[in-house]
Amino acid sequence: MASSSAGDPLRICQDLFRESKLVPFIGAGLSIRFNIPSWSQLIDLIAHELGWDADVFKLSGNFLQLAEYYVSVKGSIGPLRSRMDKLFNPPDDRILASRSHMKLVDLGFPLIYTTNFDEIIERSFKLKGKDFRTIASIDDIQEAPSNVPQIVKFHGTFSDDKSLVVTETNYFDRLDFESPLDIKLRADMLGKSLLFIGYSFSDLNIRLMLYKLSKLRREHKLSERLPTAIMTSIGPTEVERELLARWDVLIVELDPIDRDRSMDEFWEKLG
């Protein structure tokens, strides 16, 4: 059991994986190696499309507010989504060369959660010839077969504009944590721990999720022998360590000098 490896987050991850009690939750950090545009670069694109100077535009609100403004002016997220879909689309050979993505498929997780809009994880499965089912709506949940790995698109997918969590309103709705995908997450994490890969502790959405999961576990005494979550991090501060420990979140430190190699090695050591 995980508690037998107390004090070593990597060993705890390995134990949880062997016992099928680990659920990956993947963020943008896993795909940085593909030079996918950052939020700041996307805002530059939005500014250009709206005829604004990018620096002036960025002073007019935060990223979510500026995306909200874009939708208000354009009438929909469609034009931006179309551009993002092309920019978040590395060639097959680069995906095949990513040790992390190939190992993620090989590890055989029955469930993978991600807040990434792109289809890089899905394409990794296709390139390895592995079956999977994308889950982005209540219809997907109802229709998904039980014997096929599920890739749960927690912030939506480019194939469905309505599912995307891009604007401030989208995020406010997501923070309610009462959508069908939220209910699915609460059910899926019973007796399991989430493995957060590619996130920053500065992400309010992730911090709120960790808090709510920790609160839920304590209120219902859910498997106190398991950590609420494990989070990979590059150079965590003492403040981050203390606050995450209060929610029973363990930290696996990655090498800040060579993040991609360090992440590759983490996946390969997992199982």
Description:
This protein is 48% helix and 12% strand. It has 271 residues and is an alpha/beta fold. It folds into 2 domains: 2-34 and 93-270, TPP-binding domain (Rossmann fold); 39-87, no CATH class. Helix 7 packs parallel to helix 14 (259-270). The longest helix is centred in the last third of the chain and has 16 residues, at 204-219. Residues 1-5 have low confidence and may be disordered.
Rg result: 19 Å
CATH architecture of the largest domain: 3-Layer(aba) Sandwich
Percentage of residues in DSSP E strands = 5-15%
CATH domain class name of the largest domain: Alpha Beta
Q: Kindly name the structural category.
A: alpha/beta
Amino- and carboxy-terminal Cα gap: 15 Å
Number of helices: 14
Round the mean pLDDT to the nearest integer and report it. Answer: 88
Q: Per CATH, what is the topology of the largest domain?
A: Rossmann fold
* Range of helix content: 40-55%
What is this structure, in a nutshell?
By secondary structure, the protein is of the alpha/beta class. 48% of the residues lie in helices and 12% in strands. Helix 13 (238-246) links the parallel strand 6 and strand 7.
Which tags fit this structure?
single chain, alpha/beta, Rossmann fold, 2 domains, seven-stranded parallel beta sheet, 7 strands
Q: SSE layout and pairings?
A:
Blueprint: H1 9-18, E1 22-26, H2 39-50, H3 54-58, H4 63-74, H5 78-87, H6 92-96, H7 99-106, E2 111-114, H8 120-127, E3 133-135, H9 138-143, E4 150-153, H10 168-175, H11 180-188, E5 193-197, H12 204-219, E6 229-234, H13 238-246, E7 249-254, H14 259-270
Parallel strand pairs: 1-2, 1-5, 2-4, 3-4, 5-6, 6-7
Helix pairs in contact: 2-4, 7-14
